Amino acid sequence: MASTESGTAANTLVDFGITGDLAHKMTLRALYRLEKRGLLDCRIIGVAADSWTLDHLVEHAKEGIAASGEKIDDEVFGRFVKRLSYISGDVTDDSLYAKLAEELGPDARTVYYLQMPPSLFGPIVEKLGEHKLLDGARVAVEKPFGHDLDSARDLNTRLRAVLAEEQLLRVDHFLGKSPVIELEYLRFANLALAELWDRKSVSAIQITMAENFGVEDRGRFYDPVGALRDVVQNHLLQVLALVAMDPPAGAGADDLRDKKGELLRAVRAADPKNYVRGQYQGYLDVPGVAPDSDTETFAALRLEIDNWRWAGVPIYLRAGKALAERVTEVRLHLHRTPKLAFLPKGGEAERNQVVLRIDPDPGLRIALTAKADQTADWTPLTLDATFGRELGEPLEPYERLLQAALVGDAQLFAREDSVEESWRIVQPLIDSPSPLHVYERGSWGPEKAADKLGHGHVNWHQPWMPDEV
């Protein structure tokens, strides 16, 4: 088995799949922006099946970066292009790896980035091992990591036969989002939040990931996957781990990932009785979607955490396409204050809330209640902070993740135990899917989703949108 020092900076990035859609839309832009910031310090070897010249790849990169909305600086792009080289070939063919070995040379400290279908992860890594190209290297693989618990375990077993765990970086772009990273610091660096972050103060946690667009031209990819596998098993459960974990014991990557794994182990396997699936009207007309597809484009579920901090606090997750807004947020509902004689009449005050908006326009809201002047009614009072305005422009997710992979910082990558625990949590919902409910485009999903909150708990709240004052 190959090994590496996780903190060793790489001087070479080998990008398998550099001609693909993800690279065109996201990763080439991220690498260019790292160059612009002066943070890119490696050569880039692109690998793909397309019989392109280097000039073709350069034009493809320039077009993709410009199409993403990034203004191209010719001087910066010129520096970026000097880092590029390209090898074409079949990733199952030994001759490709012979050419790659010659291009790498003896002094390469390499990160291999696999923007490829998961079915090729094993064959590529095994070929790299056979050609002795893994010693001192790291390998970054894009999600999905399997399609259920058994396949995730099989994939991990196959990769770990060649790689040490510290060499393997499982990329989930959600973990590169600035507010997701900020969660750890907001919680544990601020006593005002840390002291209310448990079952004594919190009555419920809601995590929403809503998209206001449909599957569009991705029907062939999306239909075998669905919302549960696409975003709940990975994105939302990783966010939940950061929301609910205990403080890490140290500053190392494994200190953080130990606490995330510990939290996910404490989450009960999901109960199909507390799961709602939906499919937006018109989904069956999307090219690439089976005419009788039972795939969900909306998923809402309730979870429970069996530990001292969160016992008895319901956790609600929902994610969907073709919903009313595009927004991702974490919302903590606090317990109601007691009724006291001196407080105004007119009903109980609204529960206080802590809202972290992850996307778009990340920010933090504290929702309070005040007495309206000269009335007996309560009125909402919110304290809002927008991270971009207050903290400056952050790195974009793929900028952050690629830089972390290159410098050897594993904190932002999922570890094997967390991946398998996430699949364990949702496996009962895969084995026993609930009935499918059709919902209208532009709605907040099936009305049935509200029923799964349970008696005595809060309803889903309208998410906090960026233009709200």
UniProtKB/TrEMBL annotation:
SUPFAM superfamilies cross-referenced by the UniProt entry: Glyceraldehyde-3-phosphate dehydrogenase-like, C-terminal domain, NAD(P)-binding Rossmann-fold domains
Segments forming domain Glucose-6-phosphate dehydrogenase C-terminal: 185-461
The protein's annotated pathway: Carbohydrate degradation; pentose phosphate pathway; D-ribulose 5-phosphate from D-glucose 6-phosphate (oxidative stage): step 1/3
Catalytically driven reaction(s): D-glucose 6-phosphate + NADP(+) = 6-phospho-D-glucono-1,5-lactone + NADPH + H(+)
One GO location term (cellular component): cytosol
Assigned EC number: 1.1.1.49
Glucose-6-phosphate dehydrogenase NAD-binding domain residues: 16-180
Alphabetical list of InterPro entries matching this protein: G6P_DH (IPR001282), G6P_DH_C (IPR022675), G6P_DH_NAD-bd (IPR022674), NAD(P)-bd_dom_sf (IPR036291)
Reported function: Catalyzes the oxidation of glucose 6-phosphate to 6-phosphogluconolactone.
PANTHER family, per database record: GLUCOSE-6-PHOSPHATE 1-DEHYDROGENASE, GLUCOSE-6-PHOSPHATE 1-DEHYDROGENASE G6PD
Family the UniProt entry places it in: Belongs to the glucose-6-phosphate dehydrogenase family.
Protein name listed in UniProt: Glucose-6-phosphate 1-dehydrogenase
Species whose genome carries this gene: Actinospica durhamensis
